[in-house]
Amino acid sequence: MTYPTYFETFDIKKMLADYPIGDALWQKFKGMSRDELFAIQNERFKKVMDRAWQVPFYQRHWGAAGVEAGDIQSLEDIAKLPTYSKSDLMKSLEEHPPLGDFSGINTYTKETRPSMVFHTTSGTTGTPQPLMFGPYSREVQNLLLGRTYRFQGLPAGSTVQSCYGHGMINGGHYIREALIHFTNAIFLSAGTGIETRSVQQVNLMRDFNVNVLVGFADYLKRLADVAKEHGIEPGKDIKIDMISGHFGQEGREVIAEAWGGPELFDWYGIGDTGAISAEGPDHDGLYIWEDAQFVEILDTETDEVLSGEGVFGNQVVTCLFKDDIYPIIRYNSNDVTEIMPYSNSLDLPFRRTRGFMGRSDNMVKLRGINIYPTGIGPILDSHSAFAGDYICVVERDASGRDEMIVRAEAKLHGEQLHNEMKALLKQRLGIEMQVELTEPGSLAALTGIDSRQKPIRLIDNRFKK
Fold it and tell me: For this UniProt entry, which segments traverse the membrane (predicted)?
């Protein structure tokens, strides 16, 4: 039986020409007009649309909205298509187990199907969502992150330590592929503190002369504290030149000071799409990789498309390169951002955002892990002392660190029960959070459990002024 191997399914030289990296990025895009950029986007969009019409998920989703193939002639017509979100993907999985019908994998024969990279989301609230990538779309996604690091000034010949998780989730694997395939860095896949103990992580940094860290802000800050606790001085024993991670609204000064003053860079992406936008050397917002990602901003209440500078709302993403497995067209991330003024000091045609500014729904990203407050209940239910009602409160302290406090009604009280509840949540969610036990019935006024069809499960105080 013959079938194509991974690197036989696409032309790597053409991919590098289409999606330039390093010096070639500047040569192609510096001074380019928005009209020239739109022409590139439109050509790629039409190719992705041709593929998406073959996928059962889109046939059903678009058909239900009364959209026919002839209705979409160019990227200018994209708003005629309905958006979709995580809930639509989970419904697809429920109705078409185990992979759903959104990837299009079943439109290939076994002999013509390209190789597939397969990961899942964490599955905090139940069934994990499969994340599927064909070779071409996976490598473009890897390239965009490699482009991000090099755009941010990753020094040649760096030694990079990654604190992203591995296992079935996509994060650490994606970072590893991007750095190995599209930079000349030595890559240390340390992972999270669960995979490699924190004290061992700082020893690795010292022993292998790590000069670049990548990961989530909270854990990177924690590692600096661990280093000091064990007599290792960041900035002297570990000399970090650059940290690239996810800062959003986090306090950067605290992290930079903790590591001896390296340059910090933010970037934004989601598991399905890969890197969408990246902070540049000018430290003036995050540049959207618009040759590969088409981003719309939608009103969080009405889903109306918002245009112009200064608009604030949900990021809706269309991947202009995913034309093999799992096309992504108008995916509503429910991540909120703001579009910045068009002009920029780098003379690039790409729009910029202010980065991740929060969620419009009730999902909370806590130290890199997606926490769904509605998923806390089933976990608490597994303990016999839980009395049935609870609410999650998210706070941000002066240093920019986010914390979630789970207030839960309990039939019993005491230090032992408190510790058991904390251990239960950490075991199931992979992250430690605070727990406050209260008397049965005491939370009803906050949750509305006696008066609302859907009780309130989250109070987010981070963005309150």
Answer: none
* Secondary structure, 3-state, 77-124: HHHHCCCECHHHHHHHHHHCCCCCCCCCHHHCCCCCCCCCEEEECCCC
| Mutual angle of helices 135-151 and 171-182, in 10-degree steps | 70
Long-range pairs of 429-433 with CB within 8 A, sequence gap ≥ 24: 429/124, 429/369, 429/371, 429/379, 430/122, 430/192, 430/194, 430/369, 431/366, 431/367, 431/369, 431/371, 433/366, 433/403, 433/404, 433/405, 433/406
pTM, 2 dp: 0.81
Instruction: Name the residue ranges covered by the structural domains of the chain.
Output: 363-460
Asked: is 363-460 a CATH 3.30.300.30 domain? The reply is yes
Per-residue pLDDT of the chain (465 residues; tens, 9 = 90+): 788 899 999 999 999 999 999 999 999 999 999 999 999 999 999 999 999 999 999 999 999 999 999 999 999 999 999 999 998 999 999 999 999 999 999 999 888 888 999 998 866 445 678 999 999 999 999 999 999 999 999 999 999 999 998 888 898 999 999 999 999 999 999 998 888 999 999 999 999 999 999 998 768 888 998 999 999 999 999 999 999 998 865 568 878 999 999 999 999 999 999 999 999 999 999 999 999 999 999 998 789 999 999 998 999 999 999 999 999 999 999 888 999 999 999 999 999 999 987 777 777 878 777 787 877 887 898 898 998 789 999 998 888 788 999 999 998 889 999 999 999 999 988 888 999 999 988 998 898 765 453 578 889 888 665
Decide the pairing of beta strands 386-396 and 458-460.
Answer: parallel
